[in-house]
From TrEMBL:
Organism whose genome encodes this protein: Streptomyces bangladeshensis
Gene that this polypeptide is encoded by: ruvC
Broad EC category: hydrolase
InterPro entries: RNaseH-like_sf, RNaseH_sf, X-over_junc_endoDNase_Mg_BS, X-over_junc_endoDNase_RuvC
UniProt-recorded name of the protein: Crossover junction endodeoxyribonuclease RuvC
PANTHER family with a match to the protein in the record: CROSSOVER JUNCTION ENDODEOXYRIBONUCLEASE RUVC (PTHR30194)
Length: 163
């Protein structure tokens, strides 16, 4: 959980990682993820939820697991009426480090610097989650302006037509 606005110092309000046993049944793992996210949302009450957009990876099994966990996070947010933003891993890396190909160590180092932390968040998944939050804070204003421009264009385009 990160608080702030683009162009100003950001503050980490909290970070957590839900872990599940690798040998557990998928349905039980997803249930544990849901319970962890529900608890987090109840405790922290965020205004937005940023989720990693899964679009392609080499390992199909990893893609499926990430997509299923992402869907659980989106469901939990939607249940509360919290807006959800999706960002690709390369968008997050580029926003935080300046390179869409940054490695986990570079992302962790920049998250540590940007949030003025004493040490990189552990595990690496925690740093990734914070990077996702930072990316959303920095990119949301531009994305909102783009969406508004597209909507205005669509309205003007339809006004010129007759049935």
């Amino acid at each position: 959980m990160v608080e702030g606005v683009a162009g100003r110092p950001l503050t980490m309000l909290g970070v957590g990682v839900v872990r599940t046993p690798a040998d557990a049944d998928l349905s039980h793992r997803l249930l544990a993820v849901e319970q962890g996210i529900e608890q987090w949302l109840d405790e922290h009450r965020p205004e937005f939820v940023a989720v990693e957009r899964v679009f392609s990876q080499h390992n199909v099994r990893t893609v499926m697991g990430t997509a299923q966990a992402s869907a659980v996070a989106m469901l939990c947010a939607a249940r509360r009426g919290i807006p959800v933003a999706l960002h690709t891993p390369s968008e997050v890396k580029a926003a935080v480090t300046g390179s869409g190909r940054a490695d986990k160590a570079q992302v962790g180092a920049m998250v540590t610097r940007l949030l003025r932390l004493a040490a990189p968040p552990k595990p690496a998944d925690a740093a990734d989650a914070l990077a996702l939050a930072i990316c959303h804070i920095w990119r949301a204003p531009a994305q909102n302006r783009l969406q508004q421009a597209v909507a205005r264009h669509a309205v003007h385009a339809t006004k010129g037509r007759t049935a």
